[in-house]
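Comment thread on ticket #2218

A.B. wrote:
> Attaching the input chain for the structure job we discussed in standup.
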Amino acid sequence: MRGLNIAVAGCGPCGLATGLFLARSGQRVTLFERFDEPQPIGSGLIIQPTGQAVLAELGLLDRVKFEGSRIDRLYGRAGKRTVLDVRYRSLGGATRYGIGVHRSSLFDTLHDAVRSAGIQLRTGMTIASSVLEQNQRRLTFADGSRSEPFDLIVDALGTRSLLAPACGRDLAYGALWATLDWPEGSAFDQDALQQRYRRSSVMAGVLPIGCGRGERLKGAFFWSLRCDRVDAWRAAGLAPWKAEVRELWPACAPLLDQIERAEQLTFARYAHRTLATPVKPALVHIGDAWHSASPQLGQGANMALLDAWALAKGVEAADAVTVGLERAVAMRHSHVRLYQALTALFTPVYQSDSRVLPVLRDTLVGPISKLWPATWIQAAMVSGLIGNPLRSCGLPDPD
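C.D. wrote:
> Ran it. Output below, let me know if you need it in another format.
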């Protein structure tokens, strides 16, 4: 189908990519955003081979590569034990790798493309709900106003979407994030996500995220923290926290020296939720509005990009909106379910109060993970390739 009047709620990477794909397939698209100016939220992330395949279809992968950092390895230690050592080369071939980017780089790349495509963007619109009218649906806003009717509303508002029914659970642990200058001459690898753990309750990480449009390499620093301890962390001031980080990972000193105010750190909360069905009449939920999880496997943005591609392809190939949505969900359903299960399984190993799981991780799982086929399984899992999602969506591997 072509010529549908479609509203996309949310201007994060998921919504922007969806708008681009739908517009390019001949639909009339309007994007809605609550901020007066669309803006990225968060720090760094890894664009996996799955997300790269989608960006390649948009013609945007080269820019993301240029502004980001190539990631060849994920490495983590607990004390002197190596408990995580994932190398993309275990998948075979030199074309498999991640791209560490700042969320603003990914956002700007997609947002610039939306602007260039002339897609209508309405800002300052806080969405409260939607109303079905025969075969169409209207958005309702916080000020009580309503939109014109649309043939389809795409919910890309994320985990806290008011268009989606409540489900799932909030996770006990979140993370503090900061974007910092990469310390010159440091011990950090510029091609690796590196982490340090103490049990499952303490975790620090450093991810190179490229230069963006600037000239200096940046890094994303993160620190795991229970959500119910954020206020106490703020009240205590930075000094005791910095001392704890230095004790766990002395190499972080030049990063910590750049943090002078608590406001430089953003606290991210996470939830694990999966809608039983992401489709209602003239409404579809995608990305985190359909399925959200902890960032432990680093799949959120990549899964959302796959959803955007599948939705546009499903709708374009169908002769009715309902049929198109069913096709889109069929392309993504098994992969979504698989990674929701994997994330639920592995998150407590790295973010929980368990005393048993980190012992098993450090003494059993860590050594086994260095052996084949565990090396391939780990690499395929973090790459987002378990379950063959590219084949299901009809996407080629990115070169």
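A.B. wrote:
> Thanks. Noting for the ticket: Residues 117 and 174 are 36 Å apart (CA to CA).
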